[in-house]
Design goal:
The chain has helices spanning 15-34, 51-54, 97-106, 124-127, 130-137, 145-153, 240-255, and strands spanning 61-64, 67-69, 78-82, 85-89, 114-118, 140-143, 177-178, 184-187, 190-196, 205-213, 216-222, 260-262, 266-268, 281-283. It has 286 residues and is of the alpha/beta class. It has 2 domains: 1-33, no CATH class; 50-283, Metallo-beta-lactamase, Chain A, CATH 3.60.15.10. The strands form 3 sheets. It has a 7-stranded mixed β-sheet. Strand 1 and strand 2 form a beta hairpin. It is globular.
Length: 286
């Protein structure tokens, strides 16, 4: 009798070969189930002049309370823990996603416990890794209407000031929760408020929440970029709605009574926010 290959019905020439192939198939299945992201960890570098520098490694650290920095050295990503799971803001470059997941693990958390993924703005250097991280975690992705459109198509529309700069495409996401300005997103007892801050893109979003260490609580803000970067073909004066968006965004962030704002510029965390008086040069967003 000629044995079949692992129940497939295809005959094999002898029993030894059948056992060998079946054993290899079983081993491959076990490895795939144990390490579902192995095949995805080798992500090709993004083809831009600054991408390698932006993706330089950065040791993750606690910012304050339940707020942690998990981004690269040049591109920010913030992790916030709650009693019912984790919230991640931003995914940086596509090739940054495995680094972010590794940072989450290094801090003692499981990236598969990320329940909610948020974004500052939908450019490839802040949203490029969102799809990979969503697949890894199964998290809900919540975005402004404009940013949701970008992540569904993978391309920036014509009203993006940087459209004519030939921005790199972004891996698409099908399941997106579209949010409104002022909407509160919750995971367990943790609540984050969305503040639409257009200007850098029409869909820019800043986020605020409260982090505590025992009884000492700080109002935290992750502020989207408010730099007027554009292609030479784009003139803000010809787009008064986005120009007004800048004024709205400035007023919104100015109104936040925050003890700690993480912004688009390089900064050093003060000793009040760093253990043992240490400091971390930190570029949170760009």
């Amino acid at each position: 009798m000629v044995p079949a290959a692992c129940g497939s019905g295809r005959p094999l020439p002898n029993v030894v070969m059948a056992k060998l192939l079946c054993g290899l198939s079983a081993a491959a299945a076990i490895l795939w189930a144990t390490f579902p992201a192995i095949a995805q960890d080798s992500i090709a570098p993004s083809q831009c002049a600054s991408c390698a520098a932006w993706n330089a490694p950065q040791k993750p650290f606690r910012v304050y309370g339940n707020t942690y920095y998990v981004g690269t050295h040049e591109l920010g990503a913030i992790l916030i823990s709650s009693d019912q799971g984790l919230i991640l803001i931003d995914g940086d470059l596509a090739e940054s996603a495995p680094q972010i997941a590794g940072h989450v693990r290094e801090l003692g958390f499981d990236p598969k416990n990320i329940k909610l993924i948020l974004n500052s703005h939908a450019h490839f250097d802040h949203a490029g890794g969102l799809a990979w991280l969503q697949r890894l975690s199964g998290a809900t992705v919540a975005l402004s209407p404009w940013s949701a459109g970008v992540l569904r198509t993978g391309r920036s529309p014509l009203d993006d000031p940087q459209h004519d700069l030939d921005l790199l495409p972004i891996a698409t996401i099908d399941r997106i929760e579209v949010i409104r300005d002022g909407q509160v997103e919750r995971v367990g007892k943790l609540a984050l408020t969305a503040h639409f801050t257009p200007g850098h893109t029409p869909g820019g979003t800043s986020w605020s929440w409260v982090s505590c260490e025992q009884t000492a609580c700080l109002h935290m803000v992750y502020a989207d970029s408010l730099t007027a970067v554009s292609a030479d073909s784009y003139h803000y004066t010809a787009h008064p709605e986005l120009l007004q968006g800048f004024y709205k965004s400035f007023a919104t962030l100015e109104s936040k009574n925050s003890r700690h704002v993480m912004t688009a510029v390089s900064l050093t965390l003060s000793s009040t926010l760093s253990p043992a008086g240490s400091t971390h040069p930190l570029r949170v967003m760009g």
